[in-house]
Amino acid sequence: MLYKYEATTAEGEEKRGVIDAANRDIAIAALQRRNLIIISVKEAKESGFFSKPLAIFNRVKPRDIVILSRQLSTLFEAKVPVLTSLKLLAGETENPALREKMSVLLDDIQGGSSISEAMSKQPDVFSKFFVNMVRSGEESGKLDEVFSYLASYLERNYELASKARSALIYPIFVLVAFFGVLVLMLTVIIPKLSVILKETGQELPIYTKAIIAVSDLLINYGIFVLIALIVGAISVWYYLRTGQGKAGFARFQLSIPYVGVLYRKLFIGRMLDNFETLLSSGVSVIRTLELTADVIDSEIFRQILTESIEAVKGGSSISESLSRYEDIPGLVVQMIRVGEETGKLAFVLKTLSRFYKKEVDTAIETLMSLIEPALIIVLGLGVGLLVAGILGPIYNITAGI
Predict the structure, then answer these.
(1) What are the pLDDT digits (tens) for 264-316?
(2) What's the CATH number where 43 sits?
(3) Disulfide-capable partner of 256 in 155, 260, 305, 350 (CB 3.0 to 4.6 Å)?
(4) How many other C-beta atoms can be found within 10 angstroms of the C-beta atom of residue 14?
């Protein structure tokens, strides 16, 4: 809950702002820990829709967490105290949402909570993976090393996600523009030309009849088509949120020609990267599998890891538990087995994750190089079909005059 406060410092400087707390007493206690002399603390009232920024513009982005992790890693390596580091970063961050979260985080830590406990209260900013990494650093006394691992891991993930988004922006824009032009032609241009064709009374090719039928459908029942598409999209969205829907979509992802291979490499690389980061930070094998299952984006690999947890609890090794699944390449199983037998599992996992990162980078670059010619072919076929379906019969009319 948000509370508006007015206070002054010991020097008489006025302070006004908003603080997030479970109740008014906790808000007052948090302000007092900042050495503020409280004048008033009132619950913040929302006066309307525009009373606070839209959530999409007032949120903590993955890039902010990447930068925060790297800054904390640098400060901890320089032996700067935890509270001093957090105060310094809270004052310098440009994102208002993150500044507010950091302020709450500071209050919790000053109130006696550990860093991991304070972060666990903000799951929208710090994931379970992040919190457990920090907790392992606190328990082992290697917080600086853990934040270094975290920063490197988050940077790799962010770089990979950025490449994937960049690869998709161009084709999505082109396809949206194409379908927009297509709908415009079917609803504005094709009806005028179809009148001419119908008046001639000539026998039309089947593809011309199909184009005219689609045009008539959009003109006469366009609103119903739009409603059907919206209802269908919502239904698919709800289905994909179910366990069956997630599993079906995950299997579909892996079955797409070429793209499925890219997805498989992406998920395996992320899984191995998580393993290496967590195990290097002193997290137990079982907890490593649990956290990786929580953060991986594929329902198939989540099920594999969940089932592997039970196998490992029963006495199996990681390699033995993963060898039961066709979606895990034999190379990965063999390398993990070598790491377990030699006691250098973290090193082997690091080598494997780097290998898969390069594989994913290469696959994305290849996909980006193939997208442009593929789009040209698809758009050419679409335009060619329209030209042949409508202008062909019109040419026949003019040729017969």
Answers:
(1) 888 898 888 888 888 887 788 888 888 888 878 888 999 999 999 999 988 88
(2) 3.10.20
(3) 260
(4) 9
Given a contact cutoff of 8 angstroms between Cβ atoms, the answer to whether 321 and 308 are in contact is yes
Same domain, 70 and 28: no
**SS3 state at 270:** helix
Q: Please answer whether residues 102 and 248 qualify as being in contact, where contact means their C-beta atoms are separated by less than 8 angstroms.
A: no
CB 123 within 8 A of CB 60: no
Q: Which two tokens stand for residue 292?
A: 């990786």
Q: Which amino acid is it at 305?
A: L
Q: For residues 26 and 86, state if they share a domain.
A: no
Residues 313-361 pLDDT 10s: 888 889 999 998 888 888 899 999 999 899 888 889 888 988 988 888 8
To which H or E segment does residue 160 belong?
helix 143-184
What whole-number distance in Å separates Cα of residue 361 and Cα of residue 366? 9
Same domain? For 124 and 202 the reply is no
Last residue in a domain, options 93, 120, 155: 155
Taking only the tens place, the pLDDT of each residue in 35-83 is: 778 888 877 654 444 444 444 455 778 888 888 888 888 888 888 888 8
Whether residue 83 is found in the same domain as residue 129:
yes
Query: Same structural domain for residues 81 and 112?
Result: yes
Name, in order, each residue with C-beta under 8 angstroms of 183's C-beta and a sequence gap of 6 or more. Answer: 218
Q: How many CB atoms lie within 10 A of CB 391?
A: 12
Q: What global pTM score does this model have? A: 0.68
